[in-house]
Structure to design on (226 residues):
């Protein structure tokens, strides 16, 4: 069974631009979560989606948005990029939402904002 | 805000030695999970321990949970160079529909 895939793997953008990251969960997994990882703040929760509905949202500004499609694939968008948005963005999938289930992580998208 | 806090932040040991990492958290939890992350890659799930369990084993891994002290430990026995990675604990609060919260991790270096 293929793992979680994220595209692109690396991205360089300039301040003010916007970016869209994509995540394809493991086949059969309907829950997708997004995290931002930086050396200073560690892993911080962005959003969680299940059946195309956002179930949870972390403490991030409105520039960060996401969505999930009917095939469970998910995208996140960051508008008006800032230098501080440089980070590793990780997507994780699980069968269903719920903390009793392990999450399967993708390799991440490394975003650099210059 | 971080729920779990790992200790130590960094640990360096020789191959064959045991490595112990600790995680403390603030609020009551349903479950606690441990994950491993190789440099700049995605996280890999290691083990999940429920709040009514005290100890769990998986291969060379041993996890303990003390809910009265709000702490957990991860022991890796007979460490190998391939165990070099960052290790994170992740907790879910017992109150409400909250997401999994990760600590900042322990960076383990196993020297061959």
């Amino acid at each position: 069974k293929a793992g979680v895939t994220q595209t692109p793997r690396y991205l360089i953008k300039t301040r003010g631009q916007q970016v869209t990251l994509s995540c394809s969960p493991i086949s059969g997994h309907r829950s997708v979560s997004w995290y931002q990882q930086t050396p200073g703040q560690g892993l911080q929760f962005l959003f969680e989606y299940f059946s195309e509905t956002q179930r949870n949202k972390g403490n991030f500004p409105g520039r960060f948005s996401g969505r999930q499609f009917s095939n469970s694939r998910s995208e996140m968008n960051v508008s008006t990029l800032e230098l501080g948005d440089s980070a590793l963005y990780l997507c994780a999938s699980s069968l269903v939402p719920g903390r009793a289930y392990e999450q399967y992580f993708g390799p991440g998208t490394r975003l650099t904002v210059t | 805000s971080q729920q779990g806090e790992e200790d130590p932040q960094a640990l360096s040991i020789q191959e064959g030695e045991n490595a112990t990492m600790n995680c403390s958290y603030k609020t009551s939890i349903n479950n606690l999970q441990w994950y491993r992350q190789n440099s700049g890659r995605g996280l890999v799930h290691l083990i999940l321990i429920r709040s009514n369990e005290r100890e769990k084993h998986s291969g060379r891994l041993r996890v303990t949970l003390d809910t009265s002290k709000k702490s957990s430990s991860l022991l890796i026995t007979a460490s190998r160079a391939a165990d070099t990675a960052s290790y994170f604990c992740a907790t879910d609060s017992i109150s409400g529909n909250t997401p999994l919260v990760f600590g900042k991790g322990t960076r383990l270096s196993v020297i061959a």
Remarks:
- The mean pLDDT of chain A is 93.
- The two ends of chain A are 37 Å apart (CA to CA).
- The interface with chain B takes residues 4, 33, 35, 42-43, 45, 48, 55-56, 58, 88, 90, 92, 99-100, 102-108, 110 of chain A (CB under 8 Å).
- The first strand of chain A starts at residue 5 and ends at 7.
